[in-house]
Amino acid sequence: MGIDFLAYGYAALVATGGVVGYAKAGSTASLGVGILFGAVLAYGAYQSSQNPSNYLVGLGASALLAGVMGNRYYHSGKFMPAGMIAAVSTAMVLRYVVRSFAIKQQ
User: Fold this and answer.
1) What are the TM regions of this chain, as residue ranges (predicted)?
2) Burial (Cβ within 10 Å: 0-12, 13-18, ≥19) of residue 58
């Protein structure tokens, strides 16, 4: 399969979002959660790069982020950053679900 560049890019996006949240607003919560989720997503990307059947860590973290950030977007109405992360996280959840069906078909 090779390296899952898309999943690594998503992990970097989430971690970078935490750093930007800290830089712009001084939010240590954004920094901590962004780095934490970025690391978990990077681990999930590593796992799925090693074996495409190991997508559960990435799927779980993406689903959790999609739910939390989707809720924040719903209540705030602000696309940046909550709406963007919710949209990208939802896309990654769909990608992992499609991947799981493709793996099961083999």
Assistant:
1) 5-23, 29-46, 79-98
2) buried
Whole-prediction pTM? 0.92
Q: Tell me what pLDDT residue 104 has.
A: 80
| DSSP element (H, E) containing 106 | none
Two structure tokens written together for 71: 């809720």
3-state helix, strand, coil in the chain (%, to 5): 85, 0, 15
Angstrom distance (rounded) from CA 7 to CA 96: 10
User: How many structural domains does the chain have?
Assistant: 1
Mean pLDDT in consecutive groups of 10 residues from the start of the chain, 106 residues: 91 96 93 97 96 94 97 93 95 94 81
